[in-house]
Design goal:
Blueprint: H1 9-44, H2 50-66
């Protein structure tokens, strides 16, 4: 009789790969992509926005005063 592949350890690894590793890798890829583009936007654009400069200047001042 032929051994079925559904009970072999390699099929369990395939299910684990499909159900666990791939979604985790996909989520990590998307998050790293978002973080990369956010940092790029921060360095190139958001630093020059006056409102952002004002907010971070006030945050810096409160940190310096609390020391």
């Amino acid at each position: 009789m032929d051994s079925s592949s559904s009970s072999s350890p390699s099929s369990y690894l395939n299910y684990l790969n499909f159900l666990l590793f791939r979604p985790v890798l996909a989520i990590l890829f998307v998050l790293s992509f978002i973080i990369l583009w956010w940092l790029l936007a921060w360095k190139l654009v958001l630093v020059h926005v006056p409102l952002v400069q004002e907010i971070f200047a006030s945050m810096l001042m409160t940190r310096l005063l609390n020391r």
